[in-house]
Amino acid sequence: MKIYIKIGLLILMGISFSSCGDFLDEEPPTFISGENYYKTAGDARTGVDGAYESLNNIYSRWWPIIDVYTDDLVTRTQGNSATNDFGTHTVTASNSLFEGYGMYTIYWTGIARANNVLAYVPDIEMDETEKNIILGEARALRAFFYYNLARAYGDLPLIVNAVTTESDFMKPRSSVDDIYNQIIIPDLKFAENNCRDGLHDGHISKWTAKLILSEVYLTRAGWRRTSQGTFVQGDQSNWALARDKAKEVIDNSPHGLNKDEVINGANVTPAYGVAWDKNNVFSKESMLEIAYVGVAGSGSWLSRECSPSSNGASYWGAGGNQPLLGEGNTGTVSVGLRFPGRPPGVGTYIPTPDLYDAFESGDERRDWSIMTRYDTSDGASYVCQPTMRKFVDIDYFLGLDGTSFQYTNANTILYRYADALLIYAEAQNEADNGPNVDAYNAVNEIRNRAGLGDLTAGLSQVDFREAVWKERRCEFNGESKRKFDLIRTNRLATETATINILWTSAQGSLAVYRNCYSAVNGSIPWPDNEWLWPIPQSEIELNAKNGWVQNKGY
């Protein structure tokens, strides 16, 4: 058998959890067929754990690029060959992020592994409840992989079976609607009825599935561009579906917002930041969290990618400045106040002053989310240029033994109980033509946790809608939701048209500076075609006989 498609190769190799070159003339000696591998309950759990591993691989370094050059994130002044095109809005199908770094194909590895579980686990003699839990997790993972692919790339091949022959993956691209109706929604409905109850512990629970499903309905109610470039709005009946599903999580799940402060010596983590505290992994707020370990190949590179500079210049002024002298700290920005871990300043994902300005005065989320200073338990203080705190493994920044930019172990959180609150508030307002008491309570719970007062009572539907949008931006910064939010609410072009990229004293900077690639960034209109990413050009060429046509505009 000769296979000509990279996707096909990844799917075929799903069981062996390995990868190889682009073409395959015969089965390699390490290949284990699904029917030979899946024999015991332990094999079933190992198989679905392989699908979870794909989550780690997807989110450990490159996925946050989805939000770069929205109004929240940019890349540093120098840029790099992979991200420059995003700053100038000249993205191509040959960009190395798609062709070399697996931003498309890595999802198909996860789908392949999930499909193998779904194909072979049903025949294993094991406890039926545990079997259905494993099948539920596999279907939820497959749905989540397809969901992100559909939002990012549009039409996709519909592959739901384990690949045993070439015809199993030689497929045309199916419409996004078919992907939602035939895979994403049915899979999540199965998962919500079969996955474990209880708090999230790294495995998808029934509540995780319900929450993702509520967001799927929210997305389907909104706007999008098709792969052919048509601008369409979804079925408005999805608002009520999103409302009701999010309410199930709010009313019945064991989850809730973290509200207690954690005090680590002199450093106080506001309640908002507790979910990312390394001593509070899988908190009651966490509903889909990826755990990393400090081992090469199993850790996260985000601490490396997010640091805009190895010291605090230019935000804190020249390297010889002593900004904390009034506190008795004689260190300069370059010596004494620099993080001892010396993060290399790659700066792939750095916050904008535009994001800083989005926060209200007194919002505890701002100065925690956009880190410019860190105080340790032993009284030391370090400063940096504005850095997305959610990406940072602070142990690596502090230079603790055993840490490395190649494998930091700060967890990545993809969904939280806060998602349920704000999905409910937005969807209820749309479905019922105005906010009710429960919608206000949901938003106020978020605001009060951040140290803010209640929303003004009696808001119109339009004003409440905009208030929820603002809360989503402030609450979910750095969580890879901004571009998708702007797309489904038809604000991608308008909100990115004039981004503030100049740090000044108004944003706490001691010097006026710009630290993002492209001097004209913030005034380049977001092109219609970049609502979607392109299918990697090699995939288009290899699938020509399957009728694949590139997304419009690429």
Could you characterize what this model shows?
- The chain is mainly alpha-helical and 554 residues long.
- Helix content is 38%, strand content 9%.
- It contains 20 helices and 14 strands.
- Strands 1-9 form a two-stranded antiparallel sheet. It has a two-stranded antiparallel ribbon with strand order 2-3.
- A hairpin with a 2-residue loop joins β6 (262-264) and β7.
- α3 runs parallel beside α7, α9 (206-221) packs parallel to α15 and α15 (417-431) runs antiparallel to α17 (461-475).
- 51% of the residues are buried.
- Mean pLDDT is 91; it is low at 1-31.
In short:
With 554 residues, the chain is mainly alpha-helical. It has 20 helices and 14 strands.
Calculate the terminal CA-CA distance, rounded to whole Å. Answer: 32 Å
Mean pLDDT rating = 91
Largest sheet: 2 strands, antiparallel
Helix content: 25-40%
Which features characterize this protein?
mainly alpha, two-stranded antiparallel sheet, 554 residues, single chain, 20 helices, disordered N terminus
Topology:
Layout: H1 6-12, H2 34-37, H3 41-59, E1 73-74, H4 84-88, H5 96-99, H6 105-120, H7 128-153, E2 156-157, E3 173-174, H8 176-194, H9 206-221, E4 223-225, E5 231-233, H10 238-252, E6 262-264, E7 267-269, E8 286-290, H11 302-306, E9 350-351, H12 353-358, H13 364-369, E10 370-375, E11 381-388, H14 394-397, E12 412-416, H15 417-431, H16 437-449, H17 461-475, H18 482-488, H19 492-495, E13 502-503, E14 513-514, H20 537-542
Antiparallel strand pairs: 1-9, 2-3, 4-5, 6-7, 8-12, 10-11, 13-14
Helix pairs in contact: 1-6, 3-6, 3-7, 6-7, 7-8, 8-9, 9-10, 9-15, 10-15, 15-16, 15-17
